[in-house]
Design goal:
The chain has one domain: Nuclear Transport Factor 2, Chain: A (Roll), CATH 3.10.450.50. It is 14% helix and 65% strand. Strands 2-1-6-5-4-3 form a 6-stranded mixed beta sheet, with helices on one face. It starts with a strand and ends with a strand.
């Protein structure tokens, strides 16, 4: 979770603690997860950078052998804090099936 700032935003979540809870819930309710990020294009700004790309997420629930597939666009906002890049915000949109 150290990739995120303490006050990071992620879709409807506010703060690293909320993001950590959502990740924990996902990991606790699924047997397997696969994510791939592709075609990320980065843009520099005055206070950081942002990247826009594609994501594909495959999830298999603990109670099923079926995989669920989700695809869409993801945007990261990154700042350099204490000499290292960290995510200040992350948003994604999901394509309709």
């Amino acid at each position: 979770m150290s990739l995120f700032t303490e006050d990071a935003l992620a879709d409807d979540l506010k703060g690293r603690d909320d993001i950590a809870r959502r990740y924990a819930s996902t990991f606790n309710s699924t047997a397997s997860r696969r994510v791939s990020l592709t075609d990320i294009h980065w843009f520099a700004g005055e206070t950081g950078a942002w990247g826009v790309g594609r994501y594909q997420l495959k999830i298999r629930a603990r109670v099923s052998d079926d995989w669920r597939l989700q695809r869409g666009t993801i945007t990261f906002y990154v700042a350099k804090i204490d000499g290292r890049p960290v995510i200040t915000a992350m948003n994604h949109t999901t394509e309709a099936r």
